[in-house]
Specification:
Layout (H helix, E strand, L loop, with lengths): L1 E2 L2 E3 L2 E3 L4 E5 L6 E6 L3 H20 L2 H17 L1 H12 L3 H22 L5 E3 L5 E9 L2 E5 L5 H14 L3 E5 L5 H11 L8 E3 L4 H8 L5 E5 L2 H14 L2 E5 L4 E5 L5 H13 L9 E7 H17 L8 H16 L3 E4 L14 E4 L6 H4 L6 E7 L2 H8 L4 E2 L1 E5 L3 H10 L4 E4 L14 E2 L2 E2 L6 H5 L1 E9 L6
Parallel strand pairs: 1-5, 8-9, 8-11, 9-10, 11-12, 13-14, 13-19, 14-17, 16-17, 19-20
Antiparallel strand pairs: 2-3, 4-5, 6-7, 7-23, 12-22, 15-16, 18-21
Helix pairs in contact: 2-4, 3-4, 3-6, 4-5, 9-10
Keywords: Oxidoreductase
Pfam family, one: Aldedh
GO molecular function, one term: oxidoreductase activity, acting on the aldehyde or oxo group of donors, NAD or NADP as acceptor
């Protein structure tokens, strides 16, 4: 079992009340972790503040070299990180290793981009020099989730550090050992205090968000994101948020139902549905609905997934399924809590769903595919946009006209046509409404981690 510690101003410690992570596979203890006290939060931020100026003064190429070395160290630690991630949140080890590889790639991407991230000169008077200079914001608080704890942390921390900020990381209380191991792997490659880590639950995250930091970067629930935005409004920090989603999948007439079912199963059941851009609601044209549902049931029966993160989350997921059935939905497969230990829950397909059901209107974050049958593509588009979220959407259609209509009308940060996952590296989007604000990944994240200063230089009378 892992014994998690805080990293504060370059020193490891284990203060605060201790809690235990219970693994989702068999219900066995995985890690003990302390909850950082307000004093420890303040000390971590103060240590980061003290270390940041020298780190900002370090040459960009040297900061990039440090990030490259850190990426290599994470790559070499993949086995231990994957085993720990799987033990804490249920992702199969092979999939966990894949997500760690994505995190390594992100660190290396930012190492290359960071040293090229510069301002520009402006065309002013001939006797003057005008510059737009990018400078680090200062101290970045990174509050990260449990569903992809390494890749997301690598993105936020990598972008913060390579641009000259100091960072204080607060991993989820559901995956504290994974966050601790990642920090132990990254931290030796940076000066003491440049990277700190605080363990703990919601009170620790709230204390960090309300502390004297310059950026609060959060990936997680909409409710927590809104609380962070309110705290940032009080302190003046920049809030960078990727929050919940309830992503629609639209299936047009003329689509191959078997292929559509494969796409829907991948979008709804991968990582047991615990993905920010998972398919959360499906609008299928009546022309293909019957064949699609039959194929989706077969896909669900064959889809292999790990357990949900814990019993509390399983209870919430199952509660949405029960609520839908009480309101008239039918279970075609799954929908029952299996006997035995662990937080397992089967891939579940619901039909006869309506937009008023919680499983359709809110984020489930589990392996549940609620299906709504519609009479036309127009109806599907209209119903898909009725949401307080705006993270991503997917459309499966053989019609180029409908594809263009969809990406123009869907009010989400990302629209995917004929593929539930995928996209070129480096793409970044702004989430909408309850799904957050700001760029949380891609080259634009470097812009978020820096502030632009305009400099106007003129020589004094008589010259320099």
């Amino acid at each position: 079992m892992h014994i998690v510690e805080h990293l504060i101003a370059g020193r490891w410690s284990a203060g605060g009340d201790v809690s235990t992570v219970i693994g989702p596979h068999a219900g066995a203890p995985v890690a003990n972790f302390p909850a950082a006290t307000p004093h420890e939060v303040a000390a971590a931020v103060a240590g980061a503040r003290a270390a940041q100026p020298d780190w900002a003064a370090t040459a960009p190429a040297a900061r990039a070299d440090a990030l490259r070395a850190a990426a290599t160290a994470v790559e070499q630690a993949t086995g231990e990180l994957a085993r720990t991630m799987s033990a804490e949140m249920g992702k199969p080890e092979a999939e966990a290793a894949g997500s760690i590889a994505a995190g390594v790639g992100t660190l290396r991407q930012y190492a290359e981009l960071g040293q090229l991230h510069a301002g520009r000169t402006l065309a002013g008077d001939l006797g003057a020099t005008d510059l737009m200079v990018r400078e680090p914001r200062g101290v970045v608080a990174a509050i990260t989730p449990w569903n992809d704890p390494v890749a997301i942390s690598c993105g936020l921390l990598g972008a913060a550090l390579v641009t000259g900020n100091a960072a204080v990381s607060k991993p989820s209380e559901r995956t504290p050992a994974t966050g601790w191991l990642l920090t132990r792997t990254l931290a030796p490659h940076f000066p003491p205090g440049v990277l700190s880590m605080l363990a703990g639950g919601a009170p620790t995250g709230a204390a960090l968000a309300e502390s004297a930091v310059d950026v609060v970067a959060h990936v997680g629930s909409t409710a927590t994101g809104r609380a962070i935005a309110a705290a940032a409004a009080r302190t003046g920090a920049k809030a960078l948020l990727e929050n919940g989603g309830c992503d629609p999948l639209i299936i047009d007439t003329g689509v191959d139902p078997a292929w559509a079912a494969q796409q829907a199963a991948l979008g709804a059941f991968a990582n047991a549905g615990q993905i920010c851009v998972a398919v959360e609601r499906i609008y299928v044209h009546a022309d293909v609905a019957e064949e699609f549902l039959a194929a989706l049931v077969k896909e669900a029966a064959a889809f292999e997934i790990g357990p949900l993160v814990d019993l509390r989350h399983r209870s919430a997921v199952h509660g949405q399924v029960v609520d839908a059935v009480d309101r008239g939905a039918r279970i075609l497969t799954g929908g029952t809590i299996p006997e035995g230990p662990g937080a397992w829950y089967p891939p579940t397909v619901l039909t006869d769903c309506t937009d008023e059901m919680r499983v359709v209107e809110t984020e489930t974050f589990g392996p549940v595919a609620p299906v709504v049958t519609v009479a036309s593509f127009d109806e599907a588009l209209s119903r898909a946009t009725r949401s307080p979220y705006g993270l991503a959407a997917t459309v499966l259609t053989p019609s180029m006209s409908n594809a263009h209509r969809a990406w123009r009308q869907l009010e989400t940060g990302t629209v995917k046509i004929n593929a539930v996952f995928g996209g070129a590296p480096g793409g970044a989007a702004h989430p909408r409404r309850g799904s957050g604000q700001g760029f949380g990944y891609g080259p634009e994240l470097l812009d978020e981690m820096t502030a632009t200063k305009v400099v106007h230089l003129e020589s004094p009378p008589g010259g320099w």
